[in-house]
């Protein structure tokens, strides 16, 4: 049974798009904060440039997976030109579906010994 | 809250980057230029604090790659969606040759101007010299489309 991972009908999200959804799953953020969160989550392995970031945001907005928030922080504390984004309900579902797809792939990789068994990392008492 | 002044290398980088953002399609630029410039500026600021002025080289290397990769792709996406090409840049010579009562073509950049509707379309042809044969090819191409 095929799972619809995105509004494009089963097509996996691009890595940039998934990382942005993942970053926003932790709360609404503006562009630079999304970029920093992605870098943190990936241990600096992925750093989104402004072009990649905003092209992905544009696509995610068009697909209804994220939305711009109307709530803004105190203008005295932040640049008014920043726009904040958050996941929509559909975006939440799509991100969860994509995470499940990747988790399945990890299980397969472990079963074929491409990845160490997760139980090896358990610390015994 | 008053923000401190940025170091001069950050200010200069910010200005140069804002100019380079013109390579993106106009509509994309209008919507995201400010945010992209803010992200770049914030990256420069943080890197300057962490690594000093030389760290900006790393930011610029990444930004250059980001521009070269994404700007052309965004143009392709825009055209694939059937959006109108951007209007000609100010570098268009305006040196038009008449190819029909309503149509003119710029001999330098291939920009086509419809006098009747003021619709402007950039011809998808290589840069044109004053070579009459090349000009004739453009004329034939556009006349065929009319």
List keywords for this structure.
A: 125 residues; mainly alpha; 3 strands; B: 146 residues; alpha+beta; four-stranded antiparallel beta sheet
What would you say this structure looks like, in words?
The complex is a heterodimer of chains A (125) and B (146). With 125 residues, chain A is mostly helical. Chain A has helices at residues 15-25, 31-41, 50-62, 89-111; strands at 29-30, 66-68, 84-87. Chain A is built from four helices and three strands, in the order αβααββα. In chain A, strands 1-3-2 form a three-stranded antiparallel sheet. Chain B has 146 residues and is an alpha+beta fold. Helices cover 54% and strands 10% of the residues of chain B. Chain B has helices spanning 8-20, 26-51, 55-80, 132-145, and strands at residues 96-98, 103-106, 111-114, 120-122. Chain B has a four-stranded antiparallel sheet, covered by helices on one side. The interface between A and B is medium-sized, with 20 and 24 residues.
Topology record:
The complex is a heterodimer of chains A (about 120) and B (about 150).
Chain A: H1 15-25, E1 29-30, H2 31-41, H3 50-62, E2 66-68, E3 84-87, H4 89-111
Helix pairs in contact in A: 1-2, 1-4
Chain B: H1 8-20, H2 26-51, H3 55-80, E1 96-98, E2 103-106, E3 111-114, E4 120-122, H4 132-145
Antiparallel strand pairs in B: 1-2, 2-3, 3-4
Helix pairs in contact in B: 1-2, 2-3
